[in-house]
Amino acid sequence: MPSFPLPPxxxxxxxxxxxxxxxxxxxFGVFRGERAAREASWLAALALVVAVVLxxxxxxxxxxxLYGMFVTDAFAVFMKVLVLLGGIFAIVMSIxxxxxxxxxxxxxxxxxxxxxxxxMMMVSAADLISLYIGLELQSLSLYVLAGFKRDTVRSAEAGxxxxxxxxxxxxxxxxxxxxxxxxxxATDFATLAATLSGGETLAIGPLVGIVFVVVGLAFKVSAVPxxxxxxxxxxxxxxxxxxFFSVAPKVAAIALFLRVMIEPFGGYVADWRxxxxxxSVASMVLGSVAAINQSNFKRLMxxxxxxHIGYALIGLAAGSKEGVESVLIxxxxxxxxxVGTFAVILLMRRNGEDVEAIDDLQGxxxxxxxxxxxxxxxxxxxxxIPPLSxxxxxxxxxxxxxxxxxYVLAVIGVVTxxxxxYYYIRIVKLMYFDAPKPAFDxxxxxxxxAVLAVTxxxxxxxxxAPSVVVDSAAAAAASLFPG
Amino acid sequence: xxxxxxFAPLIAAAIAGFFGRLIGDRGAQLVTxxxxxxxAVLAVIxxxxxxxxxxxxxxxxxxxxxxxGDLVVDWALRLDTxxxxxxxxxxxxxAAIHVYSVGYMSHDPSIxxxxxxxxxxxxxxxxxxxxxxxxxxxxxxxxxxxxxxLLIGFWYxxxxxxxxxxxxxxxxxxxxxxxxxxxxxxxxMFGSLQFDAVFNEAxxxxxxxxxxxxxxxDALTIACILLFIGAMGKSAQLPLHTWLPDAxxxxxxxxxLIHAATMVTAGVFMVCRLSPIFEYAPDALAVVxxxxxxxxxxxxxxxxxxxxxxxxxxxxxxxxxxxxxFAAGVSAYGAAMFHLMTHAFFKALLFLGSGSxxxxxxxxxxxxxxxxxxxxxxxxxxxxxxxxxxxxxIPIFAGYYSKDMILESAWAAHSGVGQYAFWxxxxxxxxxxxxSWRLLFLTFHGEPRADHETMHHVHESPKVMLIPLYVxxxxxxxxxxxxxxxxxxxxxxxxxxxxLLVLPENxxxxxxxxxxPFFVPLLPFVVxxxxxxxxxxxxxxxxxxxxxIAGRFRGLYQFLLNKWYFDELYDRIFVRxxxxxxxxxxxxxxxxxxxxxxxxxxAAATVGAARRASRLQTGYIYHYAFAIVVGVVVFVTWxxxxxxx
Lengths: 483, 645
Known about the structure:
A: two-stranded antiparallel sheet, B: two-stranded antiparallel ribbon, 4 strands
């Protein structure tokens, strides 16, 4: 019987810790029963904070682990921190809301932890197999989360839709992986990169495989035309889940997207760029145009996130180190804008009922000036108005596109961002110029105020010290381009 | 000193304009009047020093304005006789009118604004007359135009005032367009916009040609005519005169300052200032004579029929400006400037006097509703007499000296256009006397035609309004006598020195001093007396006569009453067609094409697309799955086709 020496595990320490923590939390919850939700949530948030520390502590030069299935590098550290931040924010914001919605169960933080573990696996995947395992761990957790409020039809429907379509996308992705494996004879990224390089353009076989992989990933980032689930799921899922959806899985999927396209298939930018170009344009256009008609704020945010993914994909289409860097910056900024906006949505509650219509924001500046101000900051940032952070996100992405000579893409990006500005700024108009509706329920809770304050300050004052993000994004991007 | 003269009004305007609320009405009046009086005193000292005592003062360069390639333009104050004459005239009249406004505008709610505009105007006018180059001249030119616009429309709640201010601005645009083209032509020919450089080169440029509108022209002639078009706009000469009568919508002090004494004379000043160029363009000078003489007669004929007291004086101004132009046209620049100066005094006096009448009549301007005022406001009555005597050119009064000189020069020019100008001028002089006394008789004599209420309130104006009138009346009486020797008499060569250029063969004033037929100097006086006599006959002796004549010559009367139908003609030709064109561009161009395809169309398209995009979101899972499959098929097909191709 051959002996398997224990592989070095230290690079995967944060993932291992999170997995163990989620088991422990599960046990804790089972013993404490239904009342354990609040403690379980705070403990889960604490576990995520510890994971952040571990991730940052484990940073350093690129190392492979687990038989080449798992990689840590600066890129992974950057993206994992973003994912973990998204998880922390989501859990913290969920506590009060879940209690009010009578879905405060300890399984919620556990599922978030498991999903986060899966996402970190995705970020660190160095092999098609580990990629798929991470992706599925994440997805399965998310399917459950989407249907978490199972006594309402809409939530159950959202969970089901997401599951069915996600299964389809996973299947396609798996099919793509098998085609790549069939042509290249390997599943780990390093060998793939070595095998597939050579020749001016890629043979049609692996190219079709790549297309299928791209489709699977595009589904996860909800890029057009694989986005159809997004508005329904965003609207149907409980709001804290939607907040989580809009941040952490997006970051993880984009990270995976970047790594897969750059590492194993990096030699064929010119080939796959065409697909990315098309879905980027389609996402930007649909994200900005379709949002105009929406009256539900969560649905609007769904289209908004579709649009944002379109902008991020511009950086991927550039395919350069600068492009990757711009995507990383964009996602970092996006996390804060988005979390802040969802914090406001979570606070939209009147007489104990959730309100989600955009019109419910009318006159918010008079009833809740601070809330209105922070939402105005987020909306202006999303519209890309200088000097707010969102402007810089777009700026870096467009600059990368220009330098990669993707002029048409950059122009379309600018045009759609003008169209998109309409519905963001319309919200500001509603809040500041319309007759007020009755005030929202108070109190908001200290943790919500803290989340709002942090995200608003980061969004507003990003321009004072952008180097914090920009420098680490540059280092992270560099680690994807060896040599 | 010159710097203070020019900039004191600017500073006062800034203080009154920006801090008017802070310093209050009284403060604004004190600041602007004080600055203006200071400026006037210094300007008179400058005038005596430079013009009478003959001390040359170098051009005062303030700082460089434009320095781009060959084009260098400085801010500078040119202090030759021509400048200081204008400075003295402008600042003295302006100071008098500033003080007068304190009384006249006392019931107005926005006094600081008014005083500020007045001072601001004076600053621009002084910049204009002291300019050393074409660009600064143009700067002052546009500045006074702007202030004129602001002041005509001072009572902006009156639609008629707004219409009048817009009309003044637009008509001046036409003139300024010509002026600007003229400046371009000068720059093209001489490569410089400095007066000295251009004047020195002018004799050499006499035979050059220039292509304009596809035809070869004598370059200097075309440049001078273009510049003169600017002067026509500003000085309300045919056919760009239509704005001046309407400009009477402004407050009366404005009419006196801008539309009688100073701004409207800027055109005359400009022709005189540019005499070193015009002298070498005899054809352009002939044009100046024709336009000036025709305007002089035209405006006088219209003035005969007008019933609004200020409009009569406005047409009179137009007519007198015509005199000045044809004087300049026969190279009698000295005479033109002389008449400009005397006219500033007596016309300002007439305007302010009529302002005093209007003030007394509680705002009534129609002479048909006046009458019998002379007992009630005797001082104003007397002052109006002085002004009218000066205007009609009765000996010892200022107008006699300057107007006679102009007419004599026209005769002495010994040219066809000179003769034309002389006879038209004589006839206009007759009409001038007639309408002046018509005004006096209608306003002050006869039975009161106003209602009892108004007549009851008639009162003499306060001292603050009368004192400036005394100053102007003094000028109206003595300016002619005092200035004759210097402006057009034996002392004129020392007086003007280099500031005017008259070629020896063109020197009409010189010819006018020798060997004129006896009737030439006599005729203006005779026709003036005749005009007064006819006016007496019509409005005192036989009050029914005018109506009878008007009835007999109905067509002629209507023609004159309607100002030769110029306004109607312009309305038909320019205003309506421009309006139609603009309407077409607005509806068709902007509305249908730019808005339709641009903002509105895009917005509509976006909204439509948004509606269609959200309709895609059916909610059926198999539609969504179908979209995914379609996406995959499209991408794969794309690559298959590409690799196959």
